């Protein structure tokens, strides 16, 4: 028996309980400063190679990738950007029939995978079949021209949510090179320029603070540090270097 989209979503640690309004609009998490960046109808949500949840509306927010099924009461899925370990545009028909956005996912904890399998009614045979399915999602717009537009927005939002810590490895911070590599050239250049500008401002502020600290240290006696230098020179003159 083929696994259902809902069963795979649980296995992949994809959120399946998404808060919606009566009009099936996504409720944003204002406490997390979440904002809607893009909304696109008629996007198919495919898990693994070919397990489809059907068509729905894709919402790209500054915190999540949220897909809402078109049918009333239908499935809804949400992913946090740190769950996405790789994202790319796929146009190779040998990989997938239509151009799409490919997401490779962190498969989540073992407890979550076991819980997802236990909730599914398919039984042990289906669980064994699930084990062979890679943790992948494909976002397939009906309008192929939307692929590049949506991918750019996804990259921009993902850059706002870097995965900063490796579980079990303490306070280890990732290099941002992978995130930067996913940005288009214009966005990447803008990010670098903004950081350089911020760095120069910080440097100027630090210089002013350093100068103020030096003035406070010296006080009203600019020559307070000169005696040590002069004493050192006199000692060298009288004793000379040793070891002739």
UniProtKB/TrEMBL annotation:
Residues 203-244 are annotated as: Disordered. It comes from the Eukaryota. Residues 212-225 have a biased composition (Basic and acidic residues). Keywords: Cytoplasm, Nucleus. It is found in: Cytoplasm; Nucleus. Residues 226-236 have a biased composition (Acidic residues). GO terms for biological process: cell volume homeostasis; chloride transport; mRNA cis splicing, via spliceosome; spliceosomal snRNP assembly. Its main location: cytoplasm. GO terms for cellular component: cytosol; methylosome; pICln-Sm protein complex; plasma membrane; spliceosomal complex. Belongs to the pICln (TC 1.A.47) family. This is Chloride conductance regulatory protein ICln. It comes from Gonium pectorale.
């Amino acid at each position: 028996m083929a696994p259902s989209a809902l069963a795979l979503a649980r296995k992949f640690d994809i959120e399946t309980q998404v808060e919606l309004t009566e009009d099936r609009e996504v409720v944003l998490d204002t406490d997390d400063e979440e904002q809607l960046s893009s909304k696109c109808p008629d996007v198919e949500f495919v898990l693994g190679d070919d397990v489809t949840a059907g068509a729905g509306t894709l919402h790209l927010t500054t915190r999540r990738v949220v897909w809402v099924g078109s049918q009333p009461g239908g499935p809804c899925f949400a992913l946090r950007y740190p769950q996405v370990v790789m994202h790319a545009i796929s146009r190779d028909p040998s990989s997938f029939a239509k151009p799409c956005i490919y997401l490779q996912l962190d498969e989540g904890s073992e407890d979550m995978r076991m819980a997802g399998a236990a909730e599914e009614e398919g039984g042990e045979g289906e669980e064994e079949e699930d084990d062979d399915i890679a943790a992948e999602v494909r976002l397939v717009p009906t309008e192929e021209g939307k692929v590049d537009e949506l991918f750019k927005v996804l990259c921009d939002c993902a850059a706002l949510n870097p995965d900063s810590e490796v579980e079990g490895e303490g306070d280890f911070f990732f290099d941002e090179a992978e995130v930067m590599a996913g940005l288009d050239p214009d966005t990447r250049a803008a990010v670098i320029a903004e950081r350089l500008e911020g760095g120069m401002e910080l440097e100027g502020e630090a210089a002013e603070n350093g100068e103020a600290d030096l003035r406070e240290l010296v006080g009203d006696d600019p020559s307070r540090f000169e005696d040590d230098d002069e004493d050192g020179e006199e000692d060298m003159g009288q004793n000379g270097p040793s070891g002739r």
